[in-house]
Design goal:
- This protein has about 200 residues and is of the alpha/beta class.
- About 30% of the residues lie in helices and about 20% in strands.
- The longest helix has 18 residues.
- The radius of gyration is 21 Å and the shape is globular.
Amino acid sequence: MRLAAAAQRARHTGRLGESWQRALERLIEPKLPWRALLARYLVSFARDDYSFQRPSRRESDALLPRLSSGELDVFVVLDTSGSVGDRELEEFASEVDALKAQVRARVTLHACDHVLAPHGPWVFQPWQPVQLPEHLSGGGGTDFAPAFDWIAREGLRPDVVLYFTDAEGDFPPSPPPYPVLWLVKGRAEVPWGERIQLN
Protein backbone atom coordinates (compact mmCIF):
# COMPACT_ATOMS: atom_id res chain seq x y z
CA MET A 1 0.00 0.00 0.00
CA ARG A 2 2.89 2.36 0.74
CA LEU A 3 4.37 1.60 -2.66
CA ALA A 4 1.03 2.30 -4.36
CA ALA A 5 0.61 5.59 -2.45
CA ALA A 6 4.15 6.75 -3.27
CA ALA A 7 3.65 5.87 -6.94
CA GLN A 8 0.37 7.80 -6.99
CA ARG A 9 2.01 10.93 -5.49
CA ALA A 10 4.96 10.70 -7.90
CA ARG A 11 2.59 10.30 -10.88
CA HIS A 12 0.57 13.40 -9.88
CA THR A 13 3.68 15.54 -9.52
CA GLY A 14 5.08 14.31 -12.85
CA ARG A 15 8.13 12.60 -11.35
CA LEU A 16 7.26 9.02 -12.32
CA GLY A 17 8.68 7.87 -15.66
CA GLU A 18 6.71 5.68 -18.11
CA SER A 19 8.89 2.60 -17.56
CA TRP A 20 8.61 2.86 -13.76
CA GLN A 21 4.87 3.40 -14.04
CA ARG A 22 4.43 0.21 -16.10
CA ALA A 23 6.64 -1.79 -13.72
CA LEU A 24 4.76 -0.58 -10.64
CA GLU A 25 1.35 -1.20 -12.22
CA ARG A 26 2.38 -4.78 -12.92
CA LEU A 27 3.48 -5.23 -9.30
CA ILE A 28 0.47 -3.69 -7.58
CA GLU A 29 -2.38 -4.54 -9.95
CA PRO A 30 -4.97 -6.83 -8.34
CA LYS A 31 -4.79 -10.37 -9.69
CA LEU A 32 -7.98 -12.38 -10.06
CA PRO A 33 -7.62 -16.16 -10.28
CA TRP A 34 -7.92 -17.30 -13.89
CA ARG A 35 -10.55 -19.85 -12.90
CA ALA A 36 -12.84 -17.09 -11.60
CA LEU A 37 -12.33 -15.02 -14.77
CA LEU A 38 -13.00 -18.00 -17.03
CA ALA A 39 -16.14 -18.90 -15.08
CA ARG A 40 -17.37 -15.32 -15.32
CA TYR A 41 -16.89 -15.24 -19.10
CA LEU A 42 -18.52 -18.62 -19.70
CA VAL A 43 -21.52 -17.77 -17.54
CA SER A 44 -21.93 -14.52 -19.49
CA PHE A 45 -22.18 -16.55 -22.72
CA ALA A 46 -24.79 -18.96 -21.29
CA ARG A 47 -28.18 -18.90 -22.94
CA ASP A 48 -30.42 -19.08 -19.88
CA ASP A 49 -33.22 -16.56 -20.30
CA TYR A 50 -36.94 -16.13 -19.88
CA SER A 51 -39.21 -17.06 -22.75
CA PHE A 52 -42.78 -15.96 -23.47
CA GLN A 53 -43.32 -18.73 -25.99
CA ARG A 54 -46.90 -20.04 -25.93
CA PRO A 55 -47.11 -23.19 -23.77
CA SER A 56 -48.93 -26.31 -24.86
CA ARG A 57 -52.77 -26.25 -24.56
CA ARG A 58 -52.63 -28.80 -21.76
CA GLU A 59 -50.77 -26.37 -19.48
CA SER A 60 -52.76 -23.13 -19.74
CA ASP A 61 -53.88 -20.32 -22.03
CA ALA A 62 -51.89 -17.72 -20.10
CA LEU A 63 -48.57 -16.45 -21.45
CA LEU A 64 -46.30 -16.52 -18.43
CA PRO A 65 -42.51 -16.24 -18.52
CA ARG A 66 -40.60 -19.47 -18.04
CA LEU A 67 -36.91 -20.20 -17.92
CA SER A 68 -35.54 -21.63 -21.14
CA SER A 69 -31.94 -22.59 -21.72
CA GLY A 70 -29.94 -23.63 -24.74
CA GLU A 71 -26.72 -25.53 -25.09
CA LEU A 72 -23.53 -23.51 -25.29
CA ASP A 73 -21.08 -24.55 -28.04
CA VAL A 74 -17.56 -24.11 -26.62
CA PHE A 75 -14.45 -24.77 -28.72
CA VAL A 76 -11.22 -25.38 -26.80
CA VAL A 77 -7.84 -25.29 -28.58
CA LEU A 78 -4.69 -26.42 -26.77
CA ASP A 79 -1.29 -25.10 -27.78
CA THR A 80 0.94 -28.21 -27.94
CA SER A 81 4.08 -26.45 -29.14
CA GLY A 82 6.09 -27.63 -26.14
CA SER A 83 5.96 -24.50 -23.99
CA VAL A 84 2.84 -25.70 -22.14
CA GLY A 85 3.35 -28.77 -19.94
CA ASP A 86 1.17 -31.86 -19.58
CA ARG A 87 0.25 -31.00 -15.99
CA GLU A 88 -1.01 -27.56 -17.06
CA LEU A 89 -3.03 -29.06 -19.91
CA GLU A 90 -4.64 -31.57 -17.51
CA GLU A 91 -5.44 -28.80 -15.02
CA PHE A 92 -7.01 -26.69 -17.74
CA ALA A 93 -9.08 -29.61 -19.09
CA SER A 94 -10.42 -30.41 -15.61
CA GLU A 95 -11.38 -26.76 -15.10
CA VAL A 96 -13.25 -26.66 -18.42
CA ASP A 97 -14.98 -29.89 -17.43
CA ALA A 98 -16.14 -28.39 -14.12
CA LEU A 99 -17.37 -25.20 -15.81
CA LYS A 100 -19.23 -26.90 -18.64
CA ALA A 101 -21.49 -28.63 -16.13
CA GLN A 102 -22.51 -25.23 -14.74
CA VAL A 103 -23.38 -23.67 -18.12
CA ARG A 104 -24.61 -26.79 -19.98
CA ALA A 105 -21.99 -26.70 -22.72
CA ARG A 106 -20.93 -29.00 -25.52
CA VAL A 107 -17.12 -28.91 -25.78
CA THR A 108 -15.17 -29.46 -28.99
CA LEU A 109 -11.49 -29.95 -28.16
CA HIS A 110 -8.62 -29.64 -30.63
CA ALA A 111 -4.83 -29.39 -30.31
CA CYS A 112 -2.46 -27.37 -32.47
CA ASP A 113 1.18 -26.34 -32.62
CA HIS A 114 1.88 -25.17 -36.19
CA VAL A 115 -0.57 -27.77 -37.58
CA LEU A 116 -3.73 -29.30 -36.16
CA ALA A 117 -3.51 -32.63 -34.32
CA PRO A 118 -4.27 -35.37 -36.88
CA HIS A 119 -6.68 -37.31 -34.64
CA GLY A 120 -8.78 -34.30 -33.52
CA PRO A 121 -11.24 -32.89 -32.86
CA TRP A 122 -12.69 -34.60 -29.81
CA VAL A 123 -16.30 -33.73 -28.94
CA PHE A 124 -17.78 -33.97 -25.42
CA GLN A 125 -21.51 -33.65 -24.84
CA PRO A 126 -22.71 -31.81 -21.69
CA TRP A 127 -23.07 -35.10 -19.78
CA GLN A 128 -19.62 -36.47 -20.79
CA PRO A 129 -16.45 -35.63 -18.84
CA VAL A 130 -13.75 -33.71 -20.73
CA GLN A 131 -10.64 -35.89 -20.93
CA LEU A 132 -7.46 -35.25 -22.81
CA PRO A 133 -6.46 -37.88 -25.38
CA GLU A 134 -3.64 -40.18 -24.27
CA HIS A 135 -1.25 -38.75 -26.85
CA LEU A 136 -1.29 -35.17 -28.14
CA SER A 137 1.01 -34.55 -31.07
CA GLY A 138 3.01 -31.35 -31.08
CA GLY A 139 6.32 -29.88 -30.09
CA GLY A 140 6.85 -27.71 -33.16
CA GLY A 141 6.53 -23.94 -33.55
CA THR A 142 3.32 -22.07 -32.80
CA ASP A 143 0.85 -20.87 -35.42
CA PHE A 144 -2.67 -19.94 -34.33
CA ALA A 145 -4.17 -19.68 -37.83
CA PRO A 146 -4.79 -23.43 -38.49
CA ALA A 147 -7.39 -23.68 -35.70
CA PHE A 148 -9.35 -20.66 -36.94
CA ASP A 149 -8.98 -21.78 -40.58
CA TRP A 150 -10.41 -25.19 -39.63
CA ILE A 151 -13.44 -23.59 -37.94
CA ALA A 152 -14.08 -21.42 -41.01
CA ARG A 153 -13.50 -24.28 -43.49
CA GLU A 154 -15.96 -26.56 -41.68
CA GLY A 155 -18.55 -23.77 -41.45
CA LEU A 156 -18.72 -24.06 -37.64
CA ARG A 157 -20.19 -21.31 -35.45
CA PRO A 158 -18.86 -21.62 -31.88
CA ASP A 159 -20.34 -19.46 -29.14
CA VAL A 160 -16.84 -18.96 -27.78
CA VAL A 161 -13.31 -20.26 -28.46
CA LEU A 162 -10.95 -20.82 -25.52
CA TYR A 163 -7.31 -20.93 -26.65
CA PHE A 164 -4.85 -22.22 -24.03
CA THR A 165 -1.36 -20.99 -24.98
CA ASP A 166 1.74 -18.96 -24.15
CA ALA A 167 0.77 -16.55 -27.00
CA GLU A 168 4.25 -16.81 -28.55
CA GLY A 169 3.47 -17.43 -32.21
CA ASP A 170 1.89 -16.18 -35.41
CA PHE A 171 -1.64 -14.78 -35.12
CA PRO A 172 -4.18 -14.47 -37.93
CA PRO A 173 -4.30 -10.84 -39.16
CA SER A 174 -7.94 -10.24 -38.21
CA PRO A 175 -10.27 -11.60 -35.50
CA PRO A 176 -12.97 -14.16 -36.34
CA PRO A 177 -16.71 -13.30 -36.07
CA TYR A 178 -17.09 -15.01 -32.67
CA PRO A 179 -15.59 -14.31 -29.21
CA VAL A 180 -12.12 -15.66 -28.44
CA LEU A 181 -10.67 -15.99 -24.94
CA TRP A 182 -6.90 -16.43 -24.80
CA LEU A 183 -5.77 -18.16 -21.59
CA VAL A 184 -2.13 -17.09 -21.59
CA LYS A 185 0.76 -18.63 -19.69
CA GLY A 186 3.49 -15.98 -19.66
CA ARG A 187 3.63 -12.27 -20.41
CA ALA A 188 2.98 -12.21 -24.18
CA GLU A 189 0.16 -10.02 -25.44
CA VAL A 190 -2.56 -10.91 -27.95
CA PRO A 191 -3.61 -8.65 -30.85
CA TRP A 192 -7.36 -9.27 -30.48
CA GLY A 193 -9.84 -11.14 -28.30
CA GLU A 194 -9.96 -11.24 -24.49
CA ARG A 195 -6.82 -12.19 -22.59
CA ILE A 196 -6.81 -14.05 -19.24
CA GLN A 197 -3.48 -14.36 -17.40
CA LEU A 198 -2.86 -17.89 -16.15
CA ASN A 199 0.15 -17.49 -13.86
